[in-house]
Amino acid sequence: MEKQYIKKDLVADWESLQRIFIRPEDDASRETLIKYMEQILFGLHDFLNKNVGVTEAISLKALTDLYKETVISPHPEKKLADVISDIIQGIAPRAVNVASPYFVGHMTAAIPFFMVHLKAIVAALNQNVIKLETSKVLSVLEKQVLAKIHRLIYKNSEIFYHTHVQSTDTTLGSFTTGGTTANLTALWVARNLLLKPFDRFQGVEAQGMAEALKAYSLDKAVILASPRGHFSLKKAGGILGIGHKNVIPVDVDAHHRVDVLKLNRRIVDLKKNGKIGIMAVVGIAGATETGIVDPLDAIADVCEDHGLHFHVDAAWGGPVMLSERYAFKLKGIERGDSVTIDGHKQFFMPMTCGMVYFRDPLAMDAIAYHANYVNREGSVDLGIKTLEGSREANSLILDSSLKIMGTRGYGLMVDHGIETAQGFSRAIHARELFEMVTEPELNILTYRILPPKIKEQILSASPGEKEKLEDRVNQLNIKVQREQREAGKSFVSRTRIRQGTKDTEGQVVLRAVIMNPMTDMDILNEVLDEQEEIAKKILQSPEPF
Amino acid sequence: MEKQYIKKDLVADWESLQRIFIRPEDDASRETLIKYMEQILFGLHDFLNKNVGVTEAISLKALTDLYKETVISPHPEKKLADVISDIIQGIAPRAVNVASPYFVGHMTAAIPFFMVHLKAIVAALNQNVIKLETSKVLSVLEKQVLAKIHRLIYKNSEIFYHTHVQSTDTTLGSFTTGGTTANLTALWVARNLLLKPFDRFQGVEAQGMAEALKAYSLDKAVILASPRGHFSLKKAGGILGIGHKNVIPVDVDAHHRVDVLKLNRRIVDLKKNGKIGIMAVVGIAGATETGIVDPLDAIADVCEDHGLHFHVDAAWGGPVMLSERYAFKLKGIERGDSVTIDGHKQFFMPMTCGMVYFRDPLAMDAIAYHANYVNREGSVDLGIKTLEGSREANSLILDSSLKIMGTRGYGLMVDHGIETAQGFSRAIHARELFEMVTEPELNILTYRILPPKIKEQILSASPGEKEKLEDRVNQLNIKVQREQREAGKSFVSRTRIRQGTKDTEGQVVLRAVIMNPMTDMDILNEVLDEQEEIAKKILQSPEPF
Questions:
Q1: How much is the average pLDDT of A49-77?
Q2: B262-279 burial: b if 16+ Cβ within 10 Å, else e
Q3: Residues of chain A contacting residue B48, judged by C-beta atoms under 8 Å apart
Q4: Does residue A532 sit in helix, strand or coil?
Q5: Residues where N6-(pyridoxal phosphate)lysine occurs (chains A, B) (predicted)?
Q6: Pick from A47, A80, A299, B271: CA 20 to 30 A from residue B70's CA?
Q7: Based on the number of CB atoms within 10 Å of its own CB, is A270 exposed (0-12), middle (13-18) or buried (19 or more)?
């Protein structure tokens, strides 16, 4: 398959190499590149709709069979223009059109066209913000952007920001490569603050978890988090050496929010034990599966009472702060000792950008590292207190976008998402084939197909029968979601929602994430129509499902 | 400063927001964008030389004063075209021209112009390879590219790669966001393999370090690594809960390479203790400061004898495998249980891309996580066994570049770097004002300015005098490097080289990294001329230095 492309006239030699380093091989190549780059840069959404995800269904097996060659050609295989053409004609049609307003199952959505321009500029400058030497003004800009977002969250005084915005002694936060590493960074800091150096003990970072627990006379350290939290929290527990079993799910109420009274009781019990250190309590602002927001203010009260680190995972929900109408939903976020926010989610930035913020400008000192050739103490080098090493200048993208759209522009997108999700919920309630499972507190909702006949049967069924019926409903929803996805026109995702902290399989639900500003009720009704159609076809089919 | 730009006529409303999401506000904006994007995409290196890092010296203080405003405007501050113009005219001139062939102090260098095209395409597609649902063919392609590079390293059989390239049960490696997270991933796997589940112990990942050491009757776990290793190794020790003090520097020889006999003795001693678990031994292929390569084959022998995990940090040196002339220098890399290679270093990709590979296709099972809404067991979702969550499709960039340049194209760049560094070394030897410190095993070398008069004095000085003289030489080198950097025409970096594992301050050296294919001996002689000139001026000045 690949072989046919091998051009015998393409030879890697020093001269042609130097040429291709700086410009296209020939005018034909240049023309091809111009054509595509113009489409991408100035007609992005038309381009995506025309070129991406348009291939007829191909089975995964058939697709993987096309990508099995593992030998790299010693000589150039293709001219640049052919490589780009192959991407547009061969790869793009089999990618996923995450930008389609009919694809409402992802947290990856359409991005404004100018984001591609900004990303290209960042790539062209190719600065490495790990150190001032390879970034200069971009390091300075990053500190400014961090302060701007910190101010959005914490709303401290002008003098506070004036003091810290460019201070080399303090750190308001850090860009990361995503929510996972942002959460990991926050919990890394929390671990190091709990098990910090004293007397002759040099701290957990230097001496490790076992020595640290010994020094503090503890059996273990734990993190308390909602069972609806992102799986990166458990992963962080595993990575940090506290053990993912010690990321303890706390009780949630019927709305899947942390039950604060039970949280408090749990903390009291753990403290009574005397041998368990509580590293952090995590509240969620926009849970991945349901979009719900934990009662942040109340959790903050509990954490304050007990002197615990309060981490807010607002990877998804963070930008709701920019909405004049709905910012109140995040009340209490400003009391988080650390806050995660993703850039590539509701800041509409391209992959991959996360951020983590700390209320205390000295908190990140707990994870400072130095290396001679990288950075010297007291330098402005941003690599001293970050998980990641080399990093691109993503702050330039966020800063530019904030200038282009203003907080109000972002706020309007948030409003659109939340209000369209509310409309979607009403549309679901109005159809008898559907059942709402979790209402959209933000712009995420879950629902399921529940034929009225089966619903009735469930109501009057014995526990054993009920389980069987629920299982049938689960299978139905799985089938509908799969068929809709495979048809390729629209997409909602699918997950399982458990009640409480129970470790059961849970109910299969369809999950919609309304973040694309082009998604409206007409489109969403089409999505539901298609689901109804598929479901009815399945229900009428003589085959069991 | 920022205020003057606020355009009162820019208002965030839903209509204008939807418009700016998909295209420039007006024709004038479009024109501006086209002008700049054309320069960036088709005249990258001219553009960089003309626009980047061209501002006269500005003190860091003066620069930071320009970036202190921390309030985000509610309404759009600027039109898109103005934002882009500001970046080109205001930010770029104060960034660092990492692409200049005179800037030979970074590991961040010029990238081929087409990398910017590829990055723009990746941003436009905005796939998230954490899961098949948001990436489809890009997940499949990533597995193929991982297999291609795995094959470069490990050279297993055709049937091995046929079996694993698209297998959903096995994993040959992972893209990461850089060498730091690649090293962290490798050591995370090594930790979990050492302290794996048995009987009723569920493994370190689940139960944490303290329980794990108890279960294995150990006092601590350690990593043995060259003291010339990257600081991310220590950081990994800290993050993983083993403690960075337990990343133990092993002895090196006079050439800064791991002393294998002493390594072996160290391991024997540690094992005799009986209470210390050795998690991994780390060999470096291209040390950050000196470019040296540890005796990988011999270290592999030792690790094999003792049954230890051997990690090779080839973040820098990895692509030397592509050189027909110098691949031999990495002999033994194929015996690494895990190998780190950076994409944004000698694969000439834009920030940020790292990779980690594992010899055993089942090794990464040790770090597998599952989440209902993300991935189901046995799926092809790439997010199951990675440190990072969301990730962009960087494999598309590497794959394309390999097709455009071939392994031989990359090999020629490697050859150029190494041979130019050798030429640079000869030029340094030929000048009496300079002293070579570490010869270029690959394309990195360190040297220093050592005036012949002072050199003679050092030879005949008492220990106390000697120290004072060495300190003077250090100060001279610091001054020269700083003045050259501030003059802005060329750049070498500066670090300190210690002898052995001693925790002394070490000798100040100038460090050159020759990776830009445009850097040649004429340029390097100019760099040395400039250093001589600055040094002589300092030496002749009546002021002490």
A1: 90
A2: ebbebbeebeeeeebbbb
A3: 124-125
A4: helix
A5: 345
A6: A299
A7: middle
CA distances from B254 to B194, B435, B497 (A): 32, 16, 12
Instruction: Report, at the CATH architecture level, how domain A127-391 is classified.
Output: 3-Layer(aba) Sandwich (3.40)
The A residues from 315 to 374 touching B (CB cutoff 8 Å) are 342, 344, 350-352, 354, 367, 369-374
Helix (H) or strand (E) holding A281: strand A276-284
Cα separation, A202 vs A214, in Å, equals 12
pLDDT at B134: 87
How far A531 CA lies from chain B's nearest CA (Å)?
A: 18
Q: What is the pLDDT of residues A230-269, one digit of tens each?
A: 999 999 999 999 999 999 999 999 999 999 999 999 999 9
Question: Which architecture, in CATH terms, is B182-376?
Answer: 3-Layer(aba) Sandwich (3.40)
Indicate if the pLDDT at residue B6 is higher than 90. Answer: no
B-chain residues near A391 (CB < 8 A): 177-178, 351-352
A39-51 average pLDDT score: 93
Closest of B321, B301, B389 to residue B150, by C-alpha: B321
B250-263 per-position pLDDT tens digit:
999 999 999 999 99
pLDDT on residue A4: 41
Report domain extents, chain A.
Answer: 3-95, 127-391, 406-540
Q: How do residues A328-342 score in pLDDT, each as one tens digit?
A: 999 999 999 999 999
Q: Does A418 touch chain B (CB under 8 A)?
A: no
* Mean pLDDT of the region B380-394: 88
Note the CATH number of domain A406-540: 3.90.1150.170
List CB contacts (< 8 A) between B152 and chain A. Answer: 72
DSSP B365-416: GGG---BTTTB-TT---GGGG-S-SS---HHHHHHHHHHHHHHHHHHHHHHH
Is the complex ipTM more than 0.85?
yes
Q: Is B110 on the interface with A (CB under 8 A)?
A: yes
